[in-house]
Fold:
Amino acid sequence: MKLGISSYTFGWAVGVRDHEPSQPLDENGLLDKAHELGVSLLQIGDNVPLISFSAPRIEKLAERASREGIELEIGGRRLTGENLAAHLDLARRLNAKILRFVVDDVDYHPTPPEIVTVLRQAAPLLREVTLGIENHDRFKAQTLREIIDAAADEGIGVCLDTANSLGAGEGWGEVCGVLAPLTVNLHIKDFAVERLPHMMGFTVTGRPAGQGQLNVPDLWNHLASLGRCQSAILELWTPPQENLQKTIAKEAAWARVSLDYLRNCRAGDGQILGQKPS
Structure:
């Protein structure tokens, strides 16, 4: 598995609704971040909507990434047949091998049979692009697995996010046990679940990789042993600070600390995370 960063590593710098920075991080800024952090894989998610970019802008992105040795992956949202086909075409134009997709949108929540129909129709279009459907808040892990199994195509799998399924009421061990065999792309998002001071409930907050409750080495070893996951992408839930400038600075610091941990954290077989065995 290759180790990379995402536009969701820098969600605050890219822009969160109602908290947009004066100069949002764009595709060129993300490529700059990849160079600064020493990674050669960048996943650009739907928070930087490449699908809305002009053809010349996409061409410039593809040329710069190729010239500078940065491999791209892309992400989309709203799993309709038309939207998926457009993103697959975009992935090929950017030479992206992974397309990660979130099924739902604000006004769009298809049923499992409707999703299966879209995936089956899109399967002939995949060719050299692998499609990863992300576990999000709505579907239980078993339901998502049944959807992928019903699509019945080796080019379709799961983008496994390590925190999202908490919103569906499922713990990480349960989710991993169900979805790991189908995982083609991993989102490493560390987190902490902590009881509130009054003891009447819990909060879930992000942490830098290695500083939360996620056992990254075990996860990496397990997915590596299955042989299907192609890449591991760092994502962050950086908590807001007293102002946006400080939040963005904290996010950048967390990205560097997280990557340092991931590079130096050794898996059980002696492999350094993010590097090929020697």
